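Much of what follows relies on a compact textual record of a protein's fold. An example makes this concrete, so a full record is given next.
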Amino acid sequence: MSPGELEGARRVTPHRRSQYNPGERMKAAGRKSRYWGVWWDDGRGRWAAGAYEVEPRRRTVRIAHFQSETEAAVAHDRVALHSHGTAAPRNFPRRSLAPASIEDIRREQRCLTKSERTSRWLGVYLLRGGQPSRAWAATIHLPSGPDLSLGNWSTERQAAVAYDRAARHYVGARAEVNFPKLRTRCPPADAGVLRAEAERERKTATSSRFRGVIWVRSLDRWRARITFDGTLHHLGLYSDEREAGRAYDKTAREVFGDKAKLNFRR
């Protein structure tokens, strides 16, 4: 079998099964994708693209991480074209894509990531590798001291408003701000107050009606967890909030017995 045939393909001949099925291999790495050479990386909260190499040994090489599943599939196809030519099986065989090596794709992603982190607002930037639910950070530079963190916020606008409030507190009425028309609606606040507000907003966005359950926005799942012996133990991810609550109850009964505080009565 040629290297091009070894690259993950959608179709295999009925009489001969492919020796390499990237769909099955990559399913084990995370959420299943509809495209070949693509899988969901729980740790990064992004889609990953991979390419299959034969030399020096058969292995799947991770190309890079992407915001969307389609972007990862396109990257897979570009590397396949570079490595195996137009005969390589691809996710989008009708698209006119420029071949690229793995290093080319990674270089493009690094440049893109740098530009994506730049915000249009003063004192705001996108956290690299941060959870999507807490993506935007606000900071203010004080000439007489170090930069002050104003908290991590779920939206770019919230972080920009936090900067404005801090600027008015530390600099005064002449401070350059992002939203001059919101002066009366956004009172000045110091860095400590803003960080506390950001933390309260985070807890509100991730809270559950059940004990031991939180919402993980980056994974679109409810997480059950419990603390005992001074250690926080994760009990799994659930699509249903009640199931996560019951998972907590089950472990609480095993650990604390009759003294356990439960979400549901038996």
In short: The chain has three domains: 3-115, 124-206, 213-259. The chain has seven helices and nine strands.
